[in-house]
Amino acid sequence: MHLIGRKAVVLLAVAFVACSDSTAPPVHSTGFFLSDINGRPLPTYVVPTDPTTTVLLGSLTLDGIGHATMVEERRQQSGTPLVLTTAYNYLINGNDVTFTFQVPCPINA
Predict the structure, then answer these.
(1) Cα distance between residue 61 and residue 86, in whole Å
(2) Rounded-to-integer distance, Cα 100 and Cα 55, Å
(3) Taking phi first (over 0 means left), then psi (-120 to 50 degrees means alpha), and beta for anything else, what does residue 2 get?
(4) Cβ 53 vs Cβ 77: under 8 Å
(5) What percentage of the chain's residues is helix, strand, coil (to nearest 5)?
(6) Contact at 8 Å (CB) between 75 and 54?
(7) What is the pLDDT of residues 37-55, one digit of tens each?
(8) Whole-model pTM?
(9) What confidence tens digit (pLDDT) does each residue in 51-99 have?
């Protein structure tokens, strides 16, 4: 390959990499499912100091526009089920993912 051809290929590769946005969320939805807590398979207790609250399932969904939804199903001490759904914003920067609440907590929460 001639020197001019090599320079063109390198320039094209640099332009392609430089024009990509590593902080952008994925362009499609991605889902994750909770399989264990600290090596304990589900269903399992949340913390050893409260073995009466049991996590039955958990999932995290990332959409393609920077929103995340976490769903957790628990069985309370009384035996009643409880579903917790929390909405987040997320930002991907290289290998780091940062989550923030979509609706901030009130000051006196």
Answers:
(1) 11
(2) 23
(3) beta
(4) yes
(5) 15, 50, 35
(6) yes
(7) 999 999 999 888 888 889 9
(8) 0.67
(9) 888 999 999 999 989 999 999 999 998 999 999 999 999 998 999 999 9
